[in-house]
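#lab-general

N.A. 3:47 PM
ok so I finally got the sequence cleaned up, no stray characters, all 183 residues accounted for. can someone with queue access submit it? mine expired

B.Y. 3:52 PM
send it over

N.A. 3:53 PM
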Amino acid sequence: MRRSSEETKAVILGAARERFAADGYERATIRAIAGDARIDPAMVMRYFGSKERLFAAACAFDLALPAPGAMPRERVGELLVAHFLERWESDEALQILLRTGVTNPSAAERMREIFAAQLVPLAAELSGDPESAPRRAGLVTTQVLGLALCRFVLEIPPVVAMGREEVVRWVGPSVQRYLLDPA
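B.Y. 4:20 PM
back already:
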């Protein structure tokens, strides 16, 4: 069965996401990814050029942050924590980046780029203070990445056992403070 170029890329990316999630960046190989996708390794290289570029494509994602004006100001922290929980649970690219970012400098850089590009503008708009926005976004990032690491990767039992609403109640006020309290 012949696939279109877009279908082939999608199959490769799906296989890459699964392989990077299972094996990590260092142990995942182009040959293994190609085998999972049931294609020749040369095709992976044709479409992506290198393992690094394949990884970047497999981990490309939009945080899909809600618009600041769409959130009641007094619930911003809660809504963002709930949003991030939903994203972590539904998008394996985020979990791949998290797992790999802990040990791979390229993955860590990719994570920094994504969070800075998408969270800093939100922090600037919400706080009305562009100068403190990188610091605010960085602190929010510590909360959501720390939560994701403990809940989805390390699977710390008390954190895993918490319901979504309970997590939101505990973590939301910290995110709220980071974004809206005076610097």
